[in-house]
Amino acid sequence: xxxxxxxxxxxxxxxxxxxxxxxxxxxxxxxxxxxxxxxxxxxxxxxxxxxxxxxxxxxxxxxxxxxxxxxxxxxxxxxxxxxxxxxxxxxxxxxxxxxxxxxxxxxxxxxxxxxxxxxxxxxxxxxxxxxxxxxxxxxxxxxxxxxxxxxxxxxxxx
Amino acid sequence: xxxxxxxxxxxxxxxxxxxxxxxxxxxxxxxxxxxxxxxxxxxxxxxxxxxxxxxxxxxxxxxxxxxxxxxxxxxxxxxxxxxxxxxxxxxxxxxxxxxxxxxxxxxxxxxxxxxxxxxxxxxxxxxxxxxxxxxxxxxxxxx
Lengths: 158, 143
Fold this sequence. Notes:
The complex is a heterodimer of chains A (about 160) and B (about 140).
Chain A: E1 5-10, E2 17-22, H1 24-32, H2 36-49, E3 55-58, E4 74-78, E5 83-87, E6 92-96, E7 102-110, H3 113-119, E8 123-132, H4 144-147, E9 150-154
Parallel strand pairs in A: 2-8
Antiparallel strand pairs in A: 1-2, 3-4, 3-9, 4-7, 5-6, 7-8
Chain B: E1 2-4, H1 6-9, H2 14-30, E2 40-44, E3 49-53, E4 59-65, E5 68-73, E6 84-88, E7 100-102, H3 103-113, H4 117-132, E8 137-139
Antiparallel strand pairs in B: 2-3, 3-6, 4-5, 5-6, 7-8
């Protein structure tokens, strides 16, 4: 069995840290689809920086399957002092300035108690990308009050 | 293996530089398994959305409303047109027996959900994008 790709993250409002993870097959699907930037951003942004996320929200405030509010998701966000790109021609990674006015957002689906007790993974990483930053709440996606269900915590709040 | 712009280097600690080096080393192994990119549309079961991407690039997502997000290349020199988009709330407009959904059906549902000028503008632009890239339908069941 191929192991999930684990990433350290804050997993409670009390300041507990634990592992969230990307399923191995989901990562392989990215590579099979030729989505090199997504793979690169996972390795060089999500991996090293999720543990210092500035905000975590709960709920996507939109319909997800039978859940009209998409409650069962954590949304982490944080500023990153760089961006990464992969030059297919030279096959080299470049670390460049981040896109202006943007923050990085990672969506995680919390695992069941059974998964947590079996493999100690608090959540499955579902998605990651740059998004527009809010003008008022530094480090948060634009309009966090309407975009997400509620805020779980911000850095500096234990 | 990787280069860092001077402007970025000044902002990073030695620990951050080491973490980037590790990430780049892992990616260098991973990318050997990567296949060539082709424009695609797929149904993300977990997040209940259809994702369309026509270029493999660093992207920034712009949320238009709860049903639509548009994706742009972060490269300031890239053309100012979207490189992808996400259509959300797909399960509520399909039956669990459906194997495939036509994108036109999802666009129609979007217009019904949010009948305004902005959405009409996006539907027109995104239909053009999908047509140019021969993307017309999406499989709803895992292959």
